[in-house]
Amino acid sequence: MTQIKYMILASRQGKIRLMKWYIPLTQKEKAKILRNLTTTILSRKPKMCNIVEYSDHKVVYRRYASLYFICGITAEVDNELLILEVIHRYVEAMDSYFGNVCELDIIFNFSKAYDILDEMIMCDGSIAESSKKEILFTMSNMDVMENSDNLDRVLS
Amino acid sequence: MSSIIETRLSPFGLYFEKSLKGLIKEIRNNNNSREQLMEFLNNELITYQKEINNITSTNTINNLIVKSNIILKLTYLEMYGFDMSWANFYILEIMSSKNFQQKRIGYLAASQTFYKDDDISILATNLIKNDLKYTFSNNINNTNNTNSVSTYKIGIALNGISNICTSSLARDISDDLVLMLKNKNPYIRKKTIIALFKVFLNYPESLRDNFDAFIDCLNDSDLSVISTTISVIVELSKKIPNFFIKISPILYDLLINIDNNWIIIRLLKLFTNLTNFEPKLKFKLLPKVLNLLNNSNATSIIYESINCILNTSMLDANDFSTAQICLNKLLEFLNSKDPNLRFISCSLFIKIGKININFILNYSNEVLNFLNDIDISIRLKSLNLLVGITNDDNLIDTVNILKNQLIVNEEKIVVNSNKEIKILIPMDYKIKIIKTIINLVSINNYSNVPDFNWLIDLLYDLVFITKDSLTTDQKELGILLGHQFKTLMIKVPDIRTDILVNLIKLINFKDIEKIPISSILPDIIWSIGEFSTLIDNCNDLITDLLNLNLKDTKPINYMIITLLKLFNNYCNPTSDSSIPTTENILIYLNSILEYLSPLSYSKNFEIQERTNETMEFLKISKEAIEATNEIPILISEVLPGFFNSYDLVPVSLDIQRNIFNNELNIDLDTPFLSSEEMGAIINESLLNTDTSDNQVSLLKSLDYDWDSDADSHSDFEIQSNKSLNAEDHVTENLLDVKDSNNHAEKVVKQKSDNPFILDSKLQTRSVQSTNSLFSSDNKPQSNNHQIKINNSLNSVVDENPSEPKLHKKITVLTEATLPNFSSSTGILTTEISSLSLNPASTKDLTKKKKKKNQINLNLPNKLESFDFKNNQITNAIQDADLMELEELRQKFKSQANAERNAQENINSDNDEVIIIKKKKKKTKKKDTDGKEKKKKKKKAKPAVDTGPKLLTQNPPNII
């Protein structure tokens, strides 16, 4: 199992766009990690590697346009390359879902972004589904359901 | 007014609360400064709080719409770091909504904000249970429609479980979830398995009881179900590997047959965990893993395979062929353009080097390439590798590369012909470089250093560079550098003068006491003092030292004795011609006294002691000079006796302790003289008061000295113990020995005709220096012991013959060791062992094993550690269940008996009966097996033994 400790989406300005914690942390610890990570990772040059050692664990990140996808993983246990792949799959899934995804899509539909993430990664960051097709299928079904629910309400 | 209109309009589907989009837009508008944004967000929060509390409408559907909107906005705001635990109750409310969208929002908010042990999750238990059940009934109704609303509702609920699972929740839903493993929809099976993982963690009994059903999922038709099952097994195997050893054949088949990369990687991880627990597996696995390594195109699989080989000690320290296969693959990584692959190959190189340093010996060029990588983090990692690849040929080159990186703050690297990239060289990298350099040169007792003059220059340069380039205080570095100077001073006699020249240069730096590595000063000061015989004009040096404006206690502490040593060498120079006049001696004596006098009130105990000792001695000397106007015996004979009696030799760490632990049997308790004899002697000396005034004052002051000596000795003992415990340098010890020797000698010289009881501590310390003090009739044992040590010292002090280096003329002294001690290895070896094969790897292994054991124990403890009340409830419930079970079992038994009797009556075939009996036996065996297992797993609850298995197994077997 690939155990992801947390997944953070940060913009180039250091704004948090999405964060998902798979380990219980207090608000203070979270804030500290966010602060440290955004400064260290944003300052890295494009030619540098995507793996950073931070306190007791490793951080794998990847930049897509103006967004940084940051994952905290256990050192020595997890496969950094696999995490990069997971991040890529996530971005691909969002790309297909929103249709050429950009930062604004994620900001305004952050709950959808969370939902896609939840379909891919479940508790403690284990990968539940690696197939993009499957995820999109589930997402569209759920969206249909939401809409039909709303329709029901209007009709009633 | 407007609020009234809004509430009146809401039944018509018109809402005026800000939508999420509105909120986000406003946030963007208010984004000019941080203060403005925070103020805006705070206001928003307050509004939401008011809104959500003021919902008065009785229309629950509309209420929920409003609330879910607010909760969604709050979830968004949570990303700005706001605490929203106050809204937990509303979140629960939304979670319970029948509307799918609202439920989704509710669960999302819950998983974002519920802290694991929050009270709220107790309330959520019922809700989640309901969600699962509600959908159950729904599911049964339309089993054909696999993607019904209920499917996704279950999915959401399962997601929720995986995020907020407590032990009570786990206990309550475990059976439901196990049933759901048989669900027709793979989507639900998949999510159930993951949710079950959390349940297993919080409620281990569930795993015990449903192990087979859970493992069955490995045979699932859906690939993602298999994948998640393996994921969960990997995670569980970290904690309880013994549980999964027995299914390793199934897993091995999977590894061979499956060609999904995701699953293969996880299987490799799984086998890493299992092999560390059961080493036999590795013989079977290694061919398969090597096969994967050679035939796979996916870098992540190659990486994982190598990782698997290295982490499970599949790679034997002598298995060069396997190592070669791994290294060949790594070379591809290493020359790749992808920095990630380079980083990974670097860390794998380190792992291989840890197994056997010889594996990577031939890759020095590759490793040196790492040092010029664009990415600092790769360089940082590769520094660890250098120890493995340096030898006496490339040491200077390697160190020069490192040194050049120390000097610059910014480096320009040309990439892709024209592009130029500037990289900042961060401070922590520089610090690591310095540490690595020191480690590189000092390794194996400086055996790699081809030229010691180069080394001295290097160290001097390092001090010079760090002096300017470091911004923050670096105590550790200063101590490291200082130790290097001191160690070289002691170990390499031929270059002492050269080092001394450099040290005196350093002392004369402007503001040396304020540089970031000022912690180097104590060692410099000590070294200058100790080898001051090599200096001709000690008087000038005294002036220099007195001009230093020291603030820290540690350097001052060393300064006192150093001043005395310098003064000694000034007054007693090696050549008779340069003996100073009494006037000159008085000048320096006075200036030293002037320097010392404020220190005698120092708050630091040790400084005060040393100062007082020194001052008393100097004052007497001064009086003697002033009285006679010639150099008194105190200065010409007693003072040199303090310091010059013995040569300093390097001694291994811990050696002093070992002397007493292993070798010697010394009676330290019996005093030299009985108390009566003591009294007689004291009385005698008191009676002899008709000596001159001078002598009386001397005696008095010496008495005083004596006491303070004893005290300070005990102080030394403590200090040296500390240094033994902490990672410390040989020379630290040495210093203590030396100092205590000084004191002991002082005592010896001054008190040679006035014996006192030596307390044990003092004697411990003075053992090495005792020559004339303990006459043989007093202490025969101590005498024997002393000879031994001297012998051993002498025997090892010689040049190390095992490593004859042709081009090396300089002698490096090795630490003196006692011949019989295997344990006294010294600090250098411990440094090396960080990269040498066996100690490190075995250490790692034992560590891992320990960890496993701990976790193993943890599993049954997990429940107990949760909440005792809960536990009792569980017990009660289980007890009740047990009663029921017992009753049921009785019923079945009687039924079965009745049926069997009936059967026997109908066809009285003997064979039939035997078969039945056999079956019964088997089931019984199973039962006992099961019991044993359970007992092992959970000793605390023997009452739980008879699980539901009995119930399900017994009747069908018999019927």
Compile the SSE list and pairings:
The complex is a heterodimer of chains A (156) and B (959).
Chain A: E1 4-11, E2 16-21, H1 27-42, E3 51-54, E4 57-64, E5 67-73, H2 80-98, H3 103-108, H4 110-120, E6 121-122, E7 126-127, H5 132-155
Helix pairs in contact in A: 2-5, 4-5
Chain B: H1 2-9, H2 20-29, H3 34-53, H4 60-78, H5 88-95, H6 100-113, H7 120-141, H8 149-163, H9 167-180, H10 186-202, H11 204-216, H12 223-239, H13 248-257, H14 261-277, H15 281-295, H16 299-311, H17 320-334, H18 339-355, H19 364-370, H20 376-389, H21 395-407, E1 410-415, E2 419-424, H22 427-446, H23 452-469, H24 475-491, H25 496-507, H26 521-530, H27 538-547, H28 553-571, H29 582-596, H30 605-628, H31 633-643, H32 655-663, H33 675-687, H34 693-725, H35 730-750, H36 760-766, H37 780-797, H38 826-833, H39 837-866, H40 868-906, H41 910-937, H42 948-958
Antiparallel strand pairs in B: 1-2
Characterization of the model:
The complex is a heterodimer of chains A (156) and B (959). Chain A is α+β, with helices and mostly antiparallel strands. Chain A has a single domain (4-144), classed as Beta-Lactamase (2-Layer Sandwich), CATH 3.30.450.60. Chain A is built from five helices and seven strands, in the order E-E-H-E-E-E-H-H-H-E-E-H. In chain A, the strands form two sheets. In chain A, strands 2-1-5-4-3 form a five-stranded antiparallel beta sheet, with helices on both faces. A two-stranded antiparallel sheet of chain A has the order 6-7. In chain A, a hairpin with a 3-residue loop joins strand 6 (121-122) and strand 7. In chain A, helix 2 packs parallel to helix 5 and helix 4 (110-120) crosses helix 5 (132-155). The relative contact order of chain A is 0.16. Chain B has 959 residues and is mainly α. Among the domains of chain B are: 655-833, no CATH class; 867-958. Chain B is 70% helix and 1% strand. Mean pLDDT of chain B is 69; it is low at 136-146, 690-808, 819-878 and 906-959.
